[in-house]
Amino acid sequence: MSTFFKEYFGNIWTAIRTVAKGMSVTFLAFLKTNGLRKVRGGYNYGSGTVTISYPEVKDPLPSISRNRLFMHEEGCISCNQCAVICPVECITIESRKKNSDENPDAKTPAHFGNKPLKLKLMRFDIDEALCCFCGLCTEVCPTECLVHTTEFEYSKYDRDHLVYDYLKFKDENPLPK
Ligand code: SF4
Ligand code: SF4
Questions:
Q1: Is residue 64 part of a domain?
Q2: What H or E segment, with its residue span, contains residue 136?
Q3: DSSP secondary structure code for residue 60 in this structure
Q4: pLDDT by residue (tens digit) across 116-135?
Q5: Is 145 found in the same domain as 91?
Q6: Residue nearest to ligand 1 atom 5, measured at CA
Q7: 85 & 54 share domain
């Protein structure tokens, strides 16, 4: 057989072999989704369903997922650590010393560590359009009042509407963990 025919039929064979290899992956996935066995821990796709009717149906997010932030005002001691560590500087905090009639001996509630509330928090904004969800701010927060939530559906038409004022945000609590 001439070199030309060897190469010609060799190419055909290569095409058939690679398509068969690709289709075998598809076929195995098809078998997996039709009740032969479970795929991925925690998700039983044995019924044959591989997609969900989002947004009517939603997969639960793992509790450690990092989505929209939420700050519990009653736990914040205005220490500024979250703003300092934020790599994109999207947290803005303003506070002032308390007046004598503002209970200088107040403490955060027990579940926020009973920390002294010496300063009065005047502003606490996070620009979620800039946030990269690194989680550093929640890690350093000494009272754990700043948390990531599982809320991810908060897109806006206007970027400015992604600046959250957490002193006015109580009624829109985005499902804190
Ligand atoms: S998650 Fe990261 S980027 Fe977002 S506010 Fe916190 S420190 Fe900044
Ligand atoms: S680190 Fe926590 S306590 Fe300190 S300012 Fe930020 S949210 Fe408040």
A1: no
A2: helix 136-140
A3: P
A4: 999 999 999 999 999 999 99
A5: yes
A6: 131
A7: no
Do 84 and 162 lie in one domain? The reply is: yes
The residue segments making up the domain with residue 50 are: 1-59
Q: How far is the CA of 125 from the centre of ligand 1 (A)?
A: 12
The reported pLDDT for the residue numbered 66 is 92
As a whole number of angstroms, the distance between CA 73 and CA 82 comes to 14
Taking a C-beta distance cutoff of 8 angstroms, is the pair 92, 120 a contact?
no
**Residues in contact with ligand 1 (CB, 6 Å cut-off):** 85-88, 90-91, 126, 131-137
Here the tokens at position 151 are: 């809320």
In angstroms, what is the span from residue 141 Cα to ligand 2's centroid? 5
Cβ 65 vs Cβ 57: under 8 Å: no
Q: pLDDT by residue (tens digit) across 39-53?
A: 455 555 455 566 778
User: Does one domain contain both 168 and 123?
Assistant: yes
For residues 159 and 77, state if they share a domain. Answer: yes
List alpha helices for 32-159, DSSP H: 81-85, 136-140
Classify strands 119-127 and 163-165 as parallel, antiparallel or unpaired.
Answer: antiparallel
pLDDT digits (tens, 9 = 90+) for 79-89: 999 999 999 99
Within-domain flag for 114: yes
- Ligand 2 atom with least separation from CA of 83: 6
Q: How many domains does the chain have?
A: 2
177 is a domain residue:
no
